[in-house]
Amino acid sequence: MYKKVKLMMAVLAIGMATTMFLSCSKSDKLGNISELIIGRWQLYESNATDDPCDFEGWIEFKTDGTCTVFDACDDTTETEQYTVNGKKITITIDFISLPVIFTVVSITDSKLVWRIDILGNQITEKYKKI
Questions:
Q1: What's phi and psi for 17, nearest 5 deg?
Q2: Residues 117 and 106 in one domain
Q3: Same domain, 11 and 40
Q4: d(CA 98, CA 92)
Q5: Domain enclosing residue 12, as ranges
Q6: How confident is the model over 61-111, as pLDDT tens digits?
Q7: pLDDT value at position 118?
Q8: Residue 125 burial (CB < 10 Å; 0-12/13-18/19+)?
Q9: Could you tell me if 97 and 86 are in contact, meaning their C-beta atoms sit under 8 angstroms apart?
Q10: Is 43 in the same domain as 74?
């Protein structure tokens, strides 16, 4: 009888541990995106561009829900609105009044990887905090 109880407890413990492990979604493991995104980020890798000036620009997220984008190719700076919802960052581009939705793949205090689908093409960009 004691062996059966011990076996049942072991199976129950394994089941609970498995459930706890599987119940954590990827977004749970991303950390607090709203806090981690704050700061200035510079693109260092992209599958959509190899133009050197694209890697000289930056995007800066501020705590007030705005972000400033410096485009080194055009030597222009724009300020846009952004929101964070789960692992989605939505930036509303003022001059076209359209939201652009980025999905955060990973983020730390120094690295950001996000994806965006544009006309069926998946673009992945990697940023470092500067």
A1: -65, -40
A2: yes
A3: no
A4: 6
A5: 1-29
A6: 999 999 999 999 999 999 999 999 999 999 998 878 889 999 999 999 999
A7: 87
A8: buried
A9: no
A10: yes
